[in-house]
Amino acid sequence: MASCPPKSKFKITSNERLKELKEKFEAKFGESPLFYACGPGRVNLIGEHIDYCGYSVLPMAIEQSILAAVSVNNSGMIQLANTNPQYQDFKVSCSEEIIIDRENPKWYFYFLCGVKGIQEKFGITHLAGMSCVVDGTIPPSSGLSSSSALVCCSGLLTMEANQKSLSKVALAEICAKSERYIGTEGGGMDQSISFLAEEGTAKLIEFQPLRATDVRLPEGAVFVISNCCVEMNKAASSHYNIRVVECRIATKMLALSKGLDPSRMLKLSQVQTELKASLDEMLVLVDEVLHPDPYSREEICKVLGITSEQFCTELLSANTQNVTHFKLYQRAKHVYGEAARVLKFQCVCDAGSAESLQLLGELMNQSHASCRDLYECSCAELDQLVDVCLKSGAIGCRLTGAGWGGCAVSMVPSEKAEGFLKAVREAYYMSDPRRASMEKQSLFVTKPGGGAAVLLEE
Length: 458
Ligand code: GLA
Known about the structure:
This protein has helices at residues 16-29, 107-122, 146-161, 168-179, 189-196, 239-257, 268-275, 279-289, 297-304, 308-315, 328-351, 356-373, 380-391, 417-429, 433-442, and strands at 7-10, 35-46, 58-73, 77-82, 90-93, 129-136, 202-206, 211-215, 221-227, 295-296, 325-326, 396-399, 407-413, 443-446, 453-457. By secondary structure, the chain is an alpha+beta fold. It has a 7-stranded mixed beta sheet, sandwiched between helices. Strands 12-13-9-14 form a 4-stranded antiparallel beta sheet. Helix 6 (239-257) packs parallel to helix 7. It is globular and about 65 Å long.
């Protein structure tokens, strides 16, 4: 059986963050935590907006994480507090049905997604009572997956508190599914890397079946994360789900053009598999079948032979019911092109030649251009930041995560790292007081971190 998340012991005196969290927990709940759980954030190196189309992605976990202190008790309640005073306390009875309010994406709903996922998996009618204090170091709404890290941390600690056991892969799948209660139709990359990450290596994450393979990053370069300081909350806007819907419709159009049954086809990768075609052939097919002008609802219904009601119920999600036009050509072009770039990135890393850095940098730059121009998931500030990074010495730079704000990731030759940080600081952050005030947590070197774990005090 695939391995479970590790349980490691630690000395409270050796870890400042855990020590402070323990003190806060004791002050809040008047008892000591029984255990701790953590789930890391992630940076995606390449492969954006293709996980929900069935294609592999290449992220690594970062050091920043969600950490929770937990006690299990007979209170019959789940009581939640957050070390960040911006986030309110919350409690819910263990015998009540867990309801997640999509209209109102509060922090604790992400926590409840994890609880609900475990509850459903095991059919638990009465969850163990628990008190938790949550502490986060991942900047929220920045594309580094703070929300999935919270869902994963909560799924893991709920499993532990209820004395259940699951493999990392099962946990990742449960958390990916249960985070969709928030209303965003995410693809599973974030939860997978949060559980399957291992220190020192990036991972190629493949879906169906879910698995993670080590990708050794080239020597001689570091990865630097920089936040453009525009917040993007996926759950509070419909950008993300519109892209998911556009890909779903493109799938059906392409399937139909080749005589496949469109009602069975949900993801762009399925069409490729059924046709036994290469990604290059899929790009040609997109050129032949789809047109660059946006499609109206009427045109889509006509081509697919469906009614307007079917269109709304079978293709649209709750928050995309009012969308009138769909860019199918551009989205499908991005997805097949990006899927090919991920595989090339992996090959270059495996080959480890003298030109590796140059080749990887080019792939990252092409990925950003495709996200910006075809997928339209960047924004002016993020494009400006990517430009600044390239001018400051990055070999490759691209937006990371969902986009429309948040972070860029740059690959920088190790010997240039210091100069790079200085130049980006001056050109992007110091020129603007709001950005300058956020600079410390917005610009940093990162390396592949470990996955979610339960921690026990020695
Ligand atoms: C978010 C989603 C992921 C993925 C990325 C874009 O982080 O949660 O599943 O789709 O956006 O690559």
